[in-house]
C-alpha cells in the first residue's frame, strides 16, 4: 500500500498545540558571627539584591515607561522556538512508521512520536507550575538565604524590570530525560541596570546564574505540585503563631479575639503563673509592687500547643523550608539565639551537662544562618526547639505583663483597691 497523505499530527494533538499557544498568550501577560560561611553571606547579599531589584524607584519607572523593558513576550517566543520543528519531525516519523517492513528503530520512533503528541500538554503543565512556583508577588519577608538562582529565575520568568534579555538574562526550553521538558535560565546583569540615569557598571551589583545555567524540569515541578511543595519559601507571620498559642491554650481565659484569631485584649490568667520576682512601678509619685509572670510556668501551661508548633516545622513531616525561614528571619534576629548562653545551651543539650566548651561548640553548630541546600542537623533542631519556644513564651509573657492586665499581678499584695489610676480590675 502507498502512504500518500498521512495525518502527521492528529486533530486532537493539533488542537493541543493551538490551546497551548492560547494559554501562553493569556498567562504570560500575568506572567559575621551570623554568617559563618562567606559563600552563604555572598549568596544572601546577591539574593537580597535580586529581591530588591523588583522594587524600582519611581524615577526608574518613569524612565522605563517609554521602553519595552518588561519582556513579557519572551515566553511566547521561546515556546514557539521550542516547537518549531515538531510538525515536520512528526511527519517524518509517521512516514517511517508506515514502511514495510518496519524499520529497526520502530519502537524508538513510536516513542518519539508519542513524545511529540504529548509535549504540548507537558509544556502547558510546566508553564502553569512555573507560574505558581516562581510567583513572589504575594509573598512577604522572603529569606534571602534561599537559593539565589531560584529567586533570580523568578524575576526573569516574570519579566521584572531589569531582569530581561535587554539586561543580559534569558531562558530557553530543551528536551530533558524521560520525555520531560527543561526550562534553563542563563545570563547575568547589573541590578539595578541604571544608576542616576547611567548604565550601572558596579561589579558589586552584578548578579548571575551559574555558567551551566539554572534548570527546572517539568516532571520535577509536577511532582512538587502533587505533594503541595513550594520552591520559594515565604516567612510565616509569627504574630499568627503567638495568637494561635494564646487562643489554643486558653492561657488568658475570657480573652477577646477578632475573626482572624488576633488577640484584642482582656482575659484572666491563673495566678499560679506568677513567680516570685517583683516589679516596681510608680503611679502618681507612689511606688507599687507587682509580681512578674514566670516564663517557666507559662511554657509548661502552653506545652501541648508549643510542641505542636515546633513539630509543624522540624517534626516528622514538618515544613523544614519554613523552619529555615522562621529561624533566619525571626528567631536569629534575637541576639540570644546566636550568642552563646550557657543556660539556654543546657536546655538544648542536657546530655552535655556542665561542659561549657562542648555546649559552645554544639550551640555554634546549631545557630547562625541556616542554608537551604543542606539537611537540618540534630544540633539545629535542638537549638530551634529551645529558641522557638522562648520566642513564643517571651511574647505571651509580655502580653500578660501589659499594663492593661496589671491589676491581676497586684492581687497577690492586696493592692488592687488602693492602687490609683490603674485599669479596671479584670478579676
Fold and architecture overview:
With 427 residues, this protein is α+β, with helices and mostly antiparallel strands. It has two domains: 11-226, no CATH class; 238-413, no CATH class. The chain is built from 17 helices and ten strands. The chain has helices at 11-27, 38-53, 58-64, 74-82, 86-97, 106-133, 148-157, 218-226, 238-249, 295-301, 303-314, 320-329, 335-338, 342-348, 356-366, 378-400, 407-410; strands at residues 169-176, 180-190, 194-195, 198-199, 206-208, 214-217, 256-257, 263-265, 274-283, 286-293. The strands form four sheets. Strands 1, 2, 5 and 6 form a four-stranded antiparallel sheet that branches. Strands 3-4 form a two-stranded antiparallel sheet. Helix 1 packs parallel to helix 6 (106-133), helix 9 runs antiparallel to helix 11 (303-314) and helix 14 (342-348) packs across helix 16 (378-400). The longest helix has 28 residues, at 106-133. The radius of gyration is 30 Å and the shape is elongated. The N and C termini lie far apart (97 Å).
Sum this structure up briefly.
The chain is α+β, with helices and mostly antiparallel strands. It has helices at about 10-25, 40-55, 60-65, 75-80, 85-95, 105-135, 150-155, 220-225, 240-250, 295-300, 305-315, 320-330, 335-340, 340-350, 355-365, 380-400, 405-410; strands at about 170-175, 180-190, 195, 200, 205-210, 215, 255, 265, 275-285, 285-295. Strands 1, 2, 5 and 6 form a four-stranded antiparallel β-sheet that branches.
Write the layout of secondary structure elements.
Layout (H helix, E strand, L loop, with lengths): L10 H17 L10 H16 L4 H7 L9 H9 L3 H12 L8 H28 L14 H10 L11 E8 L3 E11 L3 E2 L2 E2 L6 E3 L5 E4 H9 L11 H12 L6 E2 L5 E3 L8 E10 L2 E8 L1 H7 L1 H12 L5 H10 L5 H4 L3 H7 L7 H11 L11 H23 L6 H4 L17
Helix pairs in contact: 1-6, 2-7, 5-6, 6-8, 9-11, 9-16, 11-16, 14-15, 14-16, 15-16
